[in-house]
Amino acid sequence: MAIKKFMYVNRKAPYGTVYALESLEVVLIAAAFDQDVSLAFLDDGVYQIAKGQDTTGIGQKNFSATYRALGDYDINKIFVEQESLDARGMTADDLMPLVYEDEDDDWAEKPSISIVSRTEMAAIMAKQDVTFSF
Predict the structure, then answer these.
(1) Using one digit for the tens of pLDDT, what is the confidence trace for 10-65?
(2) Are strands 99-102 and 113-116 parallel, antiparallel or unpaired?
(3) What is the Cβ-side half-sphere exposure of residue 86, based on CA atoms within 13 angstroms?
(4) Is residue 53 within 8 Å of 14, Cβ to Cβ?
(5) What is the spatial distance between Cα 29 and Cα 46, in angstroms, rounded to a whole number?
(6) pLDDT tens-digit readout, 66-98
(7) Which of 8, 9, 19, 62 has the fewest Cβ atoms nearer than 10 Å?
(8) 42 exposure class (CB count in 10 Å sphere: 0-12, 13-18, 19+)
(9) 81 contacts 41 by C-beta, under 8 angstroms
């Protein structure tokens, strides 16, 4: 039986709703069961992996550090839409440095994030077996 490809699409800001945290929890659970997991960050979802999140002013727990664990769960296919970054005045430098250890390259740390165009994102999504949108 072939392993299915699961993509989790994140479109919401990290705080103010449960979508971002719920997505992260579901992704980690799926990866723990050896699923082929990838993540997409579009629209306000790009804020989920922004550097320097500080939630003290809104009284919510900051869960952004959990994204750094994705590589430990073999989640290394993280796609961020360039147009979403552009619309929010962001660049790749504004994102957390998410990495994984490549066992085929003597465990070298490599970046997990790929910045892709809207057209490329559509093509990547079309190749998935299952897509969940949060």
Answers:
(1) 999 999 899 999 999 999 999 988 889 999 999 999 999 999 998 988 888 899 99
(2) unpaired
(3) 7
(4) yes
(5) 21
(6) 999 999 999 999 999 999 999 999 999 999 999
(7) 62
(8) buried
(9) yes
Question: Which domains occur in the chain, in start order?
Answer: 5-133 (3.40.1260.10)
Distance between CA atoms of 52 and 15, rounded to whole angstroms?
Answer: 14
What SS3 string covers the chain?
CCCCEEEEEECCCCCCCCHHHHHHHHHHHHHHCCCEEEEEECHHHHHHHECCCCCCCCCCCCCHHHHHHHHHHCCCCEEEEHHHHHHCCCCHHHECCCEEEEHHHCCEEEECEEEECHHHHHHHHHCCCEEEEC
